[in-house]
Amino acid sequence: MQRKYSLDVVVVVLLFGIYAICAVLLCMIGANVYHNTADSMARNYDNRTGALYVVEKIRQNDSAGVIATDSVEGSDALVITEKKSGQGYRIWLFVKDGTLYEGFFAPDTEPDPALCEEIMPMQSLTITMTGSRDKVIDLAFTTTDGKTQDFSLSLRSAGSGGAR
Amino acid sequence: MTLRKTSLSRAFFLELVLVFVIFAVCSIICLQVFAASEQERIRSLAMTELGITSQRIAEAFKADGGDINGSDLVDSAERVGSLYVWSYDKDLNVVEREEAYFTLTFEAAGSDKTNRVEVATITLSEGSSELFSYDVGVSMSGAVR
Q1: Which residue does chain B place closest to A139, by CA atoms?
Q2: 3-state class of B14 per DSSP?
């Protein structure tokens, strides 16, 4: 009788052990799925947000003689020239030290990252004008996780002295 | 006394077995939900990427006044007449058309009724089901709709 009792206890403990292991495994799988989903959402956000910010800036200002490319300390920069009440100024968008910056400067002023607004983390931004009459702006964004996302934009103002 | 102990032990054992069975059923349901969630995550990432690619094709079409041959995107496409097909597997690697999981197509439909607008259709399919499709038009005078 004593032996049967011990066997019962062993079976119960064994069953409980299996239960505990399965519960931990299920929790780990759930945590892993959650981690992957959160990671994907963050990556999606990084990919789209910075890129769309720059794209929308171009779209808003896509008119003759406004959009141009330049460089800031060796990094590509997008330059948007605007005139309001006779006073001209330039919006500079560029990536420096892992951050996308935006700054407003007078036309003859070199942009200084210290005077610019930090938009979001970004590893690099490459801007290339392609297509006939520089009609297409190719933008390559490298996010903080090292993933590069390409965007292309056709400029409506190109050919009318728009893109430079 | 011994009989009572054995009976209690058996009751506890049965309870544990019952709990284990309920747990197993719940686990199967949870695992199915996790698997579906993982599939959706992968699909969502792929759709984001392919959405951006389709946007690039549309921009190339608009930029070149109804032609995408100047774009580097056509290098990875299979061309059948006016139809361009990009075939991808689940991980978005470019594959042969027969092995494709996602298919992105661009088809130039020619001019519209007014003869002033070049029209094309861009479609993304997953297997045989269409995920999205839209028309893009470019005016011969340069304006885009």
Answers
A1: B56
A2: helix
Res. A162: pLDDT tops 70: no
DSSP A137-161: EEEEEE-TTS-EEEEEEE-TTTTTT
Q: Smallest Cβ distance to B63: which of A23, A29, A136?
A: A136
Yes or no, beta carbons of B142 and A153 under 8 Å apart:
no
B41 → closest Cβ in A19, A37, A158 = A37
Sorted by sequence, the CB contacts under 8 Å of residue B126 that are 6+ apart come out as B43, B101, B102
Contacts of B31 (CB under 8 A, 6+ apart): A26, A29
Mutate to test the interface with B, among A2, A21, A25, A33 (most CBs of B within 10 A): A33
Please write the tens of the pLDDT for every residue from A82-106: 876 677 889 999 999 999 999 988 8
CB within 8 Å: A5 and B34 = no
**Domain-by-domain residue ranges, chain A?**
1-164
pLDDT at B25 over 50: yes
* Three-class SS state of A98: coil
Instruction: Please count the residues of chain A.
Output: 164
Which residue from A minimizes the CA distance to B145?
Answer: A156
Q: Closest Cα to residue A135, out of B72, B62, B140?
A: B62
Instruction: Please report the DSSP string for B81-114 in residue order.
Output: TTEEEEEE-TT--B--GGG-SEEEEEEEEEE-TT
Among B19, B56, B76, the strongest candidate for a mutation testing the A interface, having the largest count of A CBs within 10 A, is: B56
ipTM of this complex prediction, to 2 decimal places: 0.70
The Cα diameter of chain B in Å comes to 100
